[in-house]
Hints:
Blueprint: E1 5-9, E2 16-20, E3 22-25, E4 28-31, H1 36-43, E5 49-55, E6 60-66, E7 73-79, E8 81-88, E9 99-105, E10 111-114, E11 118-124, E12 129-135, E13 144-146, H2 172-175, H3 180-184
Antiparallel strand pairs: 1-2, 2-10, 3-4, 5-12, 6-11, 6-13, 7-10, 7-12, 8-9, 8-11
Amino acid sequence: MDDKFIIENTKIEGLKIITPQRFGDERGHLTVAYNQKVLSDLLKVKFVQDKWTKSQKGVLRGIHFQEQHPQGKLVSVMSGKVLDVVVDFRKESPTFGKHLTFLLEESNPRMVFMPKGMGHAFLSLENDTIFFYKTTDYFYPEFDKGIMWNDKNININWKLQEFKIQSPKISERDKILPSFKEYFKL
């Protein structure tokens, strides 16, 4: 089996959509989600940590990033569905403060690769959604930062009505995060 990946660039430099091949029949399917020989050369990164979260429908996590030890991330959904959001927090970037959204789901194996310097969030659209991360640096809680999920300047359309979510479930920490302008002193 030859592991092939379709890699698409986005409007934000370095942010990519990666679709691995999926092989299946009436029994189910097999997806090779990561091949170091192929993806390390293409992305020019080394992944050091894998982690996953399990969330119920309506859980919103983010917008998070590490100020020191920034992480590049390769994210995907193992089970369920999410609205994934990536925000460019690289001050020198022409897309600083801009975001893109992606629908990631178990039925479609596509993944999102975000380089260092991005903020990340997602909204779980189904119960028991399992969201998987590969990261280029370790998680350091003391450097974990965030911007409020509903920041008016970033202006993310979370599509709550479309997904039949009245009010997202947000952690106590995420409820008191600063705005984009406050954090970046704009």
